[in-house]
Amino acid sequence: MNTHQEGGSTNLDAAIESLLNVEKQMRLANDVAGTRKAVIDIVELCYKAGAWKTLNDQIVLLSKRRGQLKQAITAMVQKAMDYIDLTPDMDTRIELIKTLSSVSAGKIYVEIERARLIKRLAKIKEELGQIDEAADLMQEVAVETFGSMAKTEKIAFILEQVRLCLDRQDYVRAQILSRKISTRVFDADPSKEKKKPKEGDNIVQDAPADIPSLLELKRIYYELMIRYYTHNNDYLEICRCYKAIYDIPSIKEDPAKWIPILRKICWYLVLAPHDPMQSSLLNATLEDKNLSEIPNFRLLLKQLVTMEVIQWTSLWEFFKDEYENEKNLLGGALGDKAAEDLKLRIIEHNILVVSKYYSRITLKRLADLLCLSFQAAQCLDPTRALEIEHLGKLPGSGGRETSF
């Protein structure tokens, strides 16, 4: 058996040696097609013989040969990449990816291939539970500088970088990476884009078949941003992300998809602190005809724009079940913190209402209107507690001077 293996190995070595001589002649003659064919033949020969270590060695050797042609290295890397999924075991696969990645490093003409190799290796690391290593690997590559990479592939790569950062709870880096994607890119009309590059420009490669469409990438982008903003409890930004997903045509056409998203938009609108953007979004959402499909939420938003005091206890009684359902659906995004913030938003709304109608009011009466204890009312705002207690004017007042 050993004699047979040695004989096979000798035959392989002899065949490789012969092809290396051909490759040398073609390279020295500057014959691009001939050199390319010779290196591909060597790669194929090693694969067919199942000699994976020899394949790695030959890839490194061929890439380092003096005056090696760019086209030959590109052809060799691309050919060897076809064999990654055909490796007999995980160690062999990782070794081949690492060899091809090191050969491609620093070479602009195979930068896309290297990015794809790094992505493959990161995926393997992630499957092995090595999230930190996978994230570090992905961050080595700055695809935004690649002129010939398809736009969708670039976005998909950056989104993968963001996802891995979120998985390892590196929120600062996740935000930095997410800023490399301009949201305007999702609104571009693909049919109006220039197909033919100008002379001298890089020819943009087609994205691989497994890269999602631009609108699918838009959904993935905003779902990742929701994860980021949820960490900071930034309710208004979460709401805006859901609004962007809601506006995707494939979502808008299917009630089974848009109803849960519209519910989330409503919840996060109510949870967001009162400011001009929140107010604008609130009014725009109220004008949405689709809101009639979820009347309870229409009622909730209507209460927030109506200048009347909202009784917290009755409101919570009415919406508690809806809230619990949403909490379960969101996987805990609407937790106890959100429940406390919801009560706070209702109190803020009621203070605004009170300030419209009363210019002077006792703290006890204010506490009754806000459904709070006297002590809780005192703690509402340390800078204004004394004003309210001494029947001082509430900001924004313009109503009748009435004391209770």
Automatic annotation (TrEMBL):
Gene3D superfamilies documented for this protein: Winged helix-like DNA-binding domain superfamily/Winged helix DNA-binding domain
Coiled coil residues, start to end: none
Domain of life where this protein originates: Eukaryota
InterPro entries, sorted: PCI_dom, PSMD12-CSN4-like_N, PSMD12/CSN4, WH-like_DNA-bd_sf, WH_DNA-bd_sf
Pfam family, one: PCI
GO cellular component: cytoplasm; proteasome regulatory particle, lid subcomplex
Domain PCI: 237-404
Name of the protein described by the UniProt record: PCI domain-containing protein
Species, as recorded: Paspalum vaginatum (seashore paspalum)
